[in-house]
Amino acid sequence: MSRVSVPCHVKGTVALQVGDVRTSQGRPGVLVIDVTFPSVAPFELQEIMFKNYYTAFLTIRVRQHTSTHTPAKWVTCLRDYCLMPDPHSEEGAQEYVSLFKHQMLCDMGKVLELRLILRQPSPLWLSFTVEELQIYQQGPKDLGIWFQVSPTLPASGQYAFALQSPSVTFPKWLSHPVPCDQPAPLLEGLPDPSRVSSEVQQMWALTEMIRASHTSTRIGRFDMEAPGAISLQLGVNALCALKLRLPLGLPTPSSDPPGGGETYLSRAWTTSPSVPGRVVASVRRLHQLRATMQWAGSMMSRLRSCLQALPSALRRSLSSAQDVLRRTPLYDFHLAHGGKMVAFAGWNLPVQYRDSHVDSHLHTRRHCSLFDVSHMLQTKIFGHDRVKLMESLVVGDIAELKPNQGTLSLFTNEAGGILDDLIVTNTSEGHLYVVSNAGCWEKDLTLMQDKVRELQNMGSDVGLEVMDNALLALQGPGHLVIGSLGPGPTAAQVLQAGVADDLRKLPFMTSAVMEVFGVSGCRVTRCGYTGEDGVEISVLAAEAVRLATALLENPEVKLAGLAARDSLRLEAGLCLYGNDIDEHTTPVEGSLSWTLGKRRRAAMDFPGASVIVPQLKGKVQRRRVGLMCEGAPVRAHDPILSTEGTVLGAVTSGCPSPCLRKNVAMGYVPYEYSRPGTLLLVEVRRKQQMAMVSKMPFVPTNYYTLK
């Protein structure tokens, strides 16, 4: 361990060069920096500890001076952290929050909650905020760190402490911590940074800016504010602009010939025996950069003006976007219940409510949750030739469906690609009830309407009606125990209290029209997108709020949003169209061969049959598989590699599993690598970590079937 002590004063700035910090075994070590405020208040910024090379390990501790010294005690804290969404996927608009174990040093007498970037103050005895911090490697032997601290004390002004390598190159943000395997033990009061778990490293590398503002943007900025001073500004976003001021300590002539400032400074500094030679060299380098920085400062000033105008522009853009987004009949209901609204597939929908994503996910698995899925396309296909129409578009055996029985099926094209997945129910009222994805609304509707016109021109009796109903999904079992939570009601038990029909006679993928909590004409289908027992209720739009309110009167029922719905379906091994399946994926490649009706396979009379059926008899080139992954959470588009490092495919969906407390994903690999138990690698932010092909679902499903 290395230790450096630096005195600081109001509005003071300290620059310091430190060497490569390593243990005797050659592993990255810990640097401890003491900074005191001797002339202002009896407070001490006691320790700043970080792991060399990366922003992977950081603890900041502040202690108040007292007459008696009490030995510090250390505890392990548990906190929620926000995982940075993947901006390259549809999931990027969603906020994923997961619970991880985080080892943090805390003085039990004055417990602090300081994180990598902290926006709220610490306890009242010292209003202390670490506003920004950066750690970077500069060459093979130099290590740099800078941060800005703002305590609110009787003496006004900011404290700015800077430690950086005196190099021509300015620092860059690092977001790829070195992964380690084991959690960090407490060793002599300090965690061993070489054994910090990869989960902890990933959390520390993320910022609270994502939670604070979805419009945050980081840039590096430097310019000359005044003669003899340099300003380095990082972390510019829609909320704040943080500035680090590096005064050079000497007056600079108002006009210098080229090199004049350097000569002046060199003369002045070298005449002072108290100034170390390396400081003189540092100042020289800084002044050599002056002209370049002035130009850069001018350019960045323009950028700053643009950034300052960004929030209002974003608000206008977002406001405009909100105006064109479609709203479900429950939009105001969501806002009244604390729904956080986001854009999804052209709709304004709740991503989550007041509970965290993880809490909402686990509540669904253990108790009962209510989802608004009214954005999905609901259509009614009627007429004598309704089955003929549907079987000309999908791969399923629709003719074999019994009254009020449904099935999951697929729209396919002539190349065998999947156009969308949908549920088709053969109702006892003489029509087909079809539910398909909101993201394919226009494509699906056009496909069906074109086929209706084609058949009508041929004399067929068939028609199509778009239903304007709302759609509510009530999901959750009562017998699956997670953690120490007690049993709760199933979705069926909640619903049974409001219907006269016996739901025990309504098995998975069957449907019935009934009165639900006084709302007549509701079509209740026993299905869902979570892997749990549950129902989807199609209800008149005007009655949606009334029905949702009645369901929420049960205290065990909570509202859930898109974030929980996505992680629930991934644990259940269910596909998200556009991510896991698309028009370039066949049902066999997507591990959805079971959707192909036996009669349809034999007749080869569905779109793409000439491509799909031969794949059933031979090996396809690739298959969709489940993956259990170590290390950091895996997201869509992350590469999948063989253990030899050959790229095999890509992840299509991934997230930390709240139930399993492991990272799960699905993606496509060559057929020969699709066997469960096969060891692979996934690459997350240029770091490779182990993964194993796993059977799906990851969490057992609880669909209700008649015994």
From TrEMBL:
Stretches assigned to the Aminomethyltransferase C-terminal domain: 622-699
Keyword tags: Aminotransferase, Mitochondrion, Transferase, Transit peptide
GCVT N-terminal domain boundaries: 330-597
Pfam families noted in UniProt: GCV_T (PF01571), GCV_T_C (PF08669)
EC number(s) reported in the record: 2.1.2.10
Record's subcellular location: Mitochondrion
Predominant cellular place of this UniProt entry's protein: mitochondrion
InterPro entries listed in its UniProt record: GcvT, GcvT/YgfZ/DmdA, GcvT/YgfZ_C, GcvT_C, GCVT_N, TrmE/GcvT-like
Protein's job: The glycine cleavage system catalyzes the degradation of glycine.
Protein family according to the UniProt entry: Belongs to the GcvT family.
GO MF, one annotated term: aminomethyltransferase activity
Subunit composition and interactions: The glycine cleavage system is composed of four proteins: P, T, L and H.
Gene Ontology cellular-component annotations: glycine cleavage complex; mitochondrion
Catalytic activity, as annotated: N(6)-[(R)-S(8)-aminomethyldihydrolipoyl]-L-lysyl-[protein] + (6S)-5,6,7,8-tetrahydrofolate = N(6)-[(R)-dihydrolipoyl]-L-lysyl-[protein] + (6R)-5,10-methylene-5,6,7,8-tetrahydrofolate + NH4(+)
One Gene Ontology term from the biological process aspect of the record: glycine catabolic process
Name this protein carries in UniProt: Aminomethyltransferase, mitochondrial
Species the sequence originates in: Eschrichtius robustus (California gray whale)
